[in-house]
Amino acid sequence: MNLPKRYSLIVVTVFAVTLFFGCESNFKEVQKINFSEFVPATDADTANIKYTDSGRITGVLIARKMLDYSNLDFPFTEFPKGIDVTLYDKKQKRTFIKANYAISYKSTQVIDLIGKVKITSEAGQILETEQLYFDQKNEWFYTERKFKLTDTKGVSFGQGIDFSKDFKVIHSQRVNGEFESSDEKL
Question: Which Pfam families does the entry link to (predicted)?
């Protein structure tokens, strides 16, 4: 009588152990279902992208590395080795942009430029800062960081600036610097 109880106990133990390890394996599979890898949909070592509107080139972007995360809920494109961009207005006047790093958010259409950001217009205006945002929809740049603005009137330094991509409209905050003026009353 003791022998069947012993076999029953062994069978129950083996069944319980099998069930336990079987569930552990399934639990890990369920965890993997909810886990999405953070890998880019596209990884390019060199990118040369031309943007057009009605057959007219509006911009050219050159980057040594491009990581496209369009497969995520909040899609973005990252340029970890910097960018060199040329923007064209309707009269084909150019604005040149360089940055050590950039990230473009598709849903907000905002580009975050970071590290030795330099923007140069064809008219000779140069803006330098460490971080600058570009609102693609409104074609507007802005930052709250320190900046240096050089143009034909002189050099100004400040903290906080926003301006149109062609430098025709500039709003700056906390500015100091040297300016030349043709107005004698200054």
Answer: LptC
